[in-house]
Structure formats: structure tokens, C-alpha cells
Amino acid sequence: MPRFSAETLPARLYRDPAVYEDERRRIFARSWQLIGHEAQLAEPGQWLALAIAGYPVIAVRGDDGIRAFHNVCRHRAGPLAPDGEGRCERNLVCGYHGWRYALDGRLASARDFGPAEGFDPREYALVPLACESWRGFVFVNMDAAAQPISSIIKPFAERARHMPLETFRPAQRMTHEIRCNWKTYVENYLEGYHVPIVHPALNAAIDASRYEIELHGDIVFHYAPPRLETPVSGLWAWMWPCLGINVYANGMSMERMWPVDHGRTRLDYLYFFPEGLPEAEKDAAIAASEITTAEDIAITQAVQRNLGAGIYDRGRLSPRHETAVALFQSRVTRTLEDSR
Ligand code: FES
Ligand SMILES: [Fe+2]
What we know:
Layout: H1 17-26, E1 33-37, E2 46-52, E3 55-62, E4 65-70, E5 84-87, E6 91-93, E7 100-102, E8 107-109, E9 128-134, E10 137-141, H2 149-152, H3 154-159, E11 168-178, H4 182-189, H5 195-198, H6 200-205, E12 212-216, E13 219-223, E14 234-239, E15 243-248, E16 251-261, E17 264-274, H7 279-307, H8 323-337
Antiparallel strand pairs: 1-10, 2-3, 2-5, 3-4, 4-9, 6-7, 7-8, 9-10, 11-17, 12-13, 13-14, 14-15, 15-16, 16-17
Helix pairs in contact: 4-7
């Protein structure tokens, strides 16, 4: 159990571009990040490209599995693919001068390069990332020394053991760009204290007075008993540093809260449903979640404005409701102080 830190982080940490640069290197380059689902990378040559806190990443299926690399050509930093999804033939081809890379990252050919003394293509392979799947979900980590995702996600895996996650298919993505620091959004996700005030519809569905938070290493669980048997009953969790995992009886959503810069967060909801679920049920689940999300966006943007205003510096956290916020904040502090 982490020490309960009753005081919040100073407001400066939510608005300083230099702090964000540190967070990119010390947090986002060293933690597991969900990039998608194996169903999006089913065939050799299928790729998925995106930016994680400004780090361009590409995952591609080769003949022997999925690998991930920085989406940066070793010639003069061109992109191997635009952000999105697609399929290539035998090679990833740089969009600048056409260098070709095998799907295992080796440089296969440097187009029309000419004789260059001391140029050994073996020294110009793509920069690899750790890439692992957990129950169909594909995660990457830029830290070669990272612990495996299976050990990080274990507390969640144990509780989700009997849930039919493999029957869920990627269905839809909803993206929101939010004018707040990524920590402002994560902290809002980590407490239910605001539910009765900010979320009237959700508050009607769950008994927020019995909202409980449980901390297990890199995983936080939320429990809130439903007032009736409603779709909100399920398993709600969060994984360090910024992934929400919400499993319901008939589907799930993964919620990525990735920074765009120090003052903006890109929220990606990835929805997964079992095959054959009626469209109306999917639409209803997404619509309910979008209502809650719109409420969270409005309040976190208002909070961010106030954090930037120079009035507030530090506040106090509730020992009853905000232990996960305290855990997150002390972890951020420790990670930023880590000299590694
Ligand atoms: S930058 Fe990729 S081929 Fe030139
Ligand atoms: Fe909320």
C-alpha cells in the first residue's frame, strides 16, 4: 500500500512544457501502452501506426508474429507509414526516399543510394520496441528492460479470468481532443468522488455512496454497485500510467488518455463487442459512455483552466475517495525524480 500523500501535486506540474518533456522520457517511454488488437494485425504485412506522447510507433505482423518499431526511417527520419492502419507487401517503404525495410525491421534496400564507403545496411535496422499481446490486446513498451505485460496486468488478469474477452471484436473508436493536461484527465478517472456532482445519469445507475477504490500495484479497481441490474455493472480498472479498462457483460472499452502536449490530451475510446451483438445495443452502450465522457471533458477543461490561472497551487486529497489519485501522484513524483 503506498503512503497516502494528502497534498496534491503543485499546479505547475500540469502546465509546464518542461515537465511534460520529462514525463515523455521517464513515463511514456518506459511503460506499457495499448496500441490495438490482434484482429487489426491478423495478416502478414498489416500495420498499425500512431503516436504515443509524441513518439511515433508502428506495429506490423510478419510471418512469425507482431513486432513494433519506432515509425522513423534510419535515413533522414521519414515515416514508414502515416498514422492509421494499412497493409504492405513484403516491406515497409519509407515515404520520403523509399528505403525498404523487411517486416522484422532489417533494412532490405536503400533505393538508388550509390556506392558509399563504410555503409553497412545491417547498422540501419529500424529501432525495435518491446511488443506483447495479452488476451488479444497488443501492447508496446519502449523500454527494453521493462517487465513483461503479463506481470504488470496480473491483478486485472486474475479478476478477468472468466470473462470472455476473446469473443470481443474491435468495433469502433471514439476520439476526443481535450484541453487539459493528461494527468488532470487521469486523476479524474481515478476517483468516484465527483460522480454525484458531475454525472447525474451515471449517479442514477450506480450507488455512488458505496463507490470503492482498490489499489494493486500498477492496477486500480473501481467498484460501484448498480442500483438496478444495468449495463454499468462490470469490471472497471486502470493501468499505469493512463489506460482505463472497462469490461461489461456485453463488451468492453479501453480508454487511452495520451498527451498531445503539456496542455492537451487525446482520449481514445476503443470499443469491443461480441460478434452478433445487435447494433442498437452497441449504439446504446457507446451513447451512455459518451454522455459521461462529455461531462468529464467539461469539468477537466474547467479544472485545467484554473490550474493555469496562477491562483491555486496545492490542495488536499480525500482519504475516503482519493487514494488512487494519491497513488498516481506519488508515482509521478517518484518517476520524475528517478535518475535512470
Ligand atoms: S528518410 Fe527514409 S528514405 Fe530517406
Ligand atoms: Fe467522471
